[in-house]
Amino acid sequence: MDPGSEFEGVGEGRLTPVTEIDIRGLAEVRDEKDVFLSVYLPTASREEEAENRSFVARRSRAMEEALPADLKASFRETMATVEDLLFSSPIPGERGRIVFASAPAPLLRAYRIGIDPGRAMVLDTSPFLLPLAKLRDDYLDYGLLLLDSREARLFCVRSDVPEEVGRLSADLMGKHKKGGWSQMRFNRLRKGAVRSFLSEVAEDVRESCLRHKTRGLVVAGPGDAKKEFLELLPHDLGRKVLAVVDLPIDAPQRKLVEIGNEIALADERVLSMERAEELRAQILRGGLAVRGVEATKVALEAGRVSVLVLLKDASAPGWICERCQALEARRRPPPACPNCGGPTSAVDVVNELYELAERTGAEVEFVEEDACLASGEGVGALLRY
Ligand SMILES: [Zn+2]
């Protein structure tokens, strides 16, 4: 990726869905020295903002003191670049902010997001991506369809923010006078009109799902239209339906997103439990899986990993060689790399494994809790071969 200085999100004054952030590109960025500043801040309230200021002041002071003399000036320069980005007023709907910056690299990425990222500030040889990766795992984009027999609204929910992407309404028989028709004939005609309306909605949903690459679809609304709609959905789309929920057609957006998020998150939890289960089964039968930091690292380096499976709270102190990328867990960094003599630094090996996975195109799955993974340092991988 072009590591050039670039403004995103904060400068534009819009919310960026976490799925839109080029995490793979950011995983390619590294330097031999600790020049990359990563900051995650919650911005939902005034109290948070006040806490952010003292947190950043405290952390930056500690960082500057810990840095070798030759890096202090560039660190101050980086801090000066991000000052405004960190503390500018939040826009409506903003609940957090993520900034990656380095004056010497140069790199500058800043994003306003609709979710609370927790508070973290790290200076390292590469952008600190693990918190962002966890957010992306929890907040996949999904579609939300609210419909009855004459109105349909389709939303794409990205990082907690609903965006209306389609709206259809049918003037069912409105133009006709019921007078003169038998009740039976009226009902038949109305039924046909509802059906053709719902087919139109299904077609719209299909197009939208393709365009927005949503993970799944929540179907909501009052009455029986939902059921009829599901019967009209083509099979491939039907499989994407995460849940069907009874809701009034005028349900407020906030409520919709709240319910949709719960459903999407529950679906993600099921998926990650399935992954953990698959890993356990493969390990038990000596199949295509590894567990533990060392074995996982070797598999990643060989490009054999299809899915890196990480416990959410996994972390393993260790060191990395900034030149040849030699990586070792459970050791303090040696003065120089035993392989190439390059500079070493202390790292969280789990974060390094994560970045390695991104660079090698492996999928990454975070698991809430799992005994098998926990006994393997919280790290494992399903292998391609
Ligand atoms: Zn080395």
From TrEMBL:
Xref: Pfam families: baeRF_family10
Highest rank taxon of the organism: Archaea
GO MF term (any one): translation release factor activity
Xref: InterPro entries: BaeRF_family10, eFR1_2_sf, Peptide_chain-rel_eRF1/aRF1, Ribosomal_eL30-like_sf
Protein's UniProt name: eRF1 domain-containing protein
Species the sequence originates in: Methanothrix harundinacea (strain 6Ac) (Methanosaeta harundinacea)
